[in-house]
Design goal:
single chain; about 100 residues; four-stranded antiparallel beta sheet; 4 strands; about 20% helix
Length: about 100
């Protein structure tokens, strides 16, 4: 059985959050910025949490708590995008959207 912890059931929690990242507006003056929001999937239970960004393949984090996992994924997003820029790679537009939690018996 797979159910969300927020519903009072004991199993691995899977949630989605959207994190904002400030990116230079590549279509305008280099001094202008825009906020881009990427969906983040957070999974975990107890002292083992991970997060990943579907729109940024390879952008992941792991921590001992949900809070640590969230902080680390924020840092990972910034570093991932910085590395892509340094390598001349295009920054993917955020396409993933929030999802619902489906209970399966």
């Amino acid at each position: 059985m797979c159910q969300d912890n927020r519903l009072g059931h004991s199993s691995t929690a899977v949630t989605t959050d959207t994190y904002r990242h400030v990116l230079p507006d590549l279509d305008h003056d280099a001094t202008e910025t825009r906020v881009t929001e990427y969906l983040v999937v957070i999974e975990g239970d107890g002292d083992s949490w991970s997060a990943y960004v579907p729109d940024l393949p390879g952008c992941v984090s792991a921590g001992a708590s949900r809070d640590e996992g969230e902080q680390l994924i924020r840092e990972a997003i910034a570093l991932h995008i910085e590395s892509m820029r340094e390598h001349g790679e295009p920054i993917p537009a955020p396409l993933a959207r929030g999802a619902i939690v489906v209970q399966v018996a």
